[in-house]
Amino acid sequence: VRKSKGFSWGAAGVSTSLFTGPMMADIIQRARPMRRAKYVCMEGADKLPNGYYGTSLKLNWVMDKNRGIMLAHKMNGESLSPDHGRPLRAVVPGQIGGRSVKWLKRLIVTDAPSDNWYHIYDNRVLPTMVSPEMSSEDPRLWRDERYAIYDLSVNSAAAYPQHDEVLSLSSPETTYTARGYAYGGGGRRITRVEISLDDGKTWRLANIEYPEDKYREYESQLYGGQVDMWWRESSFCWCMWSLDIPVPDLETSDAILVRAMDEAMNIQPRDMYWSVLGMMNNPWFRISIIKENGGLKFAHPTQPALMPGGWMEEVKKKGGDLTNGYWGQRSNGVATTMPVVTEEIDMTAKGLNNVISIEELRSHSTAENPWF
């Protein structure tokens, strides 16, 4: 798989918090938008190489309180920290994080999507046949609003077994509890999580717990605001799944596969959809099982951020094709091929090994000469 231009998140780019603040709809309503208004453009105070960060949302989404779009000044009961957007930020649940503008400076009601550089050239899924070179040569591809990401896609991951965890076959335990999380987009509830031990031929239904639902029963003030989830059916937070698997079943399997489905019957695909930025990638989550030294060793596909490791990295080192429909493994009847070396996008400077002292970091903490 060719490296994309995006960041390396791994399965670690999701979390849940409780925010306090007014609904954005109440603020916009006071502005009395004109009939031709269709979008709410947002601009942050963070100045980046291509200007201030900004993006937009559809006005009808903002005005729909079921979507929970708000202006937050607290997070988990405390005033926002600088990293989370102090003093005010937008929170757009169920959508890609780039729509939740931090350090919010202004809202603008418009008749067209934002023309901000970061709205156009980030948070997009370009068609899979568009290469990095094509995307650089033809800016019209980026300006097609159909490719902009808003609602998140259905996704899931396993937390246990952990990467490099070893299960001893001499242990008296007869079952192993696999656990993980799943989430959907646009407020759609995850209705099932399924596990396969035979490459997707058969599936087992996992148990699901919805921590978000506990807040729907809360009828009082919390963290400086009225908890208003009792009337809203939307599901914005991750849910937790678990399944007890007999150890002998794991012993005869090569991998644990996980997939989720939401209430609109959107289901994770078997294979990845490659795109220039690599965003919204949601194929089945696969943990490989390696039998060694009287135990079962588990390997996740990748590690979070830039941490090395994962079975995908091993497949790549051996010249395997991760897009061959067999997770880079060679199927029966397919001849062995020589490794194909492809040009990669390099996000780091070769040979740069500078050590930054705390004094140097502090010298770049002012508004005049910031690093972050």
From TrEMBL:
The keyword Flavoprotein applies. Residues 146-291 form the Moybdenum cofactor oxidoreductase dimerisation domain. Gene3D superfamilies: 2.60.40.650, Oxidoreductase, molybdopterin-binding domain. Keywords: Disulfide bond, FAD, Flavoprotein, Heme, Iron, Membrane, Metal-binding, Molybdenum, Nitrate assimilation, Oxidoreductase, Transmembrane, Transmembrane helix. Its cofactor is Mo-molybdopterin; heme; FAD. It comes from the Eukaryota. The chain crosses the membrane at residues 6-28. One of its GO terms (biological process) is nitrate assimilation. The keyword Protease does not apply. It holds the Pfam family Mo-co_dimer. Residues 3-118 form the Oxidoreductase molybdopterin-binding domain. GO terms for molecular function: heme binding; molybdenum ion binding; molybdopterin cofactor binding; nitrate reductase activity; sulfite oxidase activity. Nitrate reductase is a key enzyme involved in the first step of nitrate assimilation in plants, fungi and bacteria. Belongs to the nitrate reductase family. PANTHER family: SULFITE OXIDASE, MITOCHONDRIAL (PTHR19372:SF7), SULFITE REDUCTASE (PTHR19372). Homodimer. This is Nitrate reductase. It comes from Oidiodendron cereale. The gene is euknr.
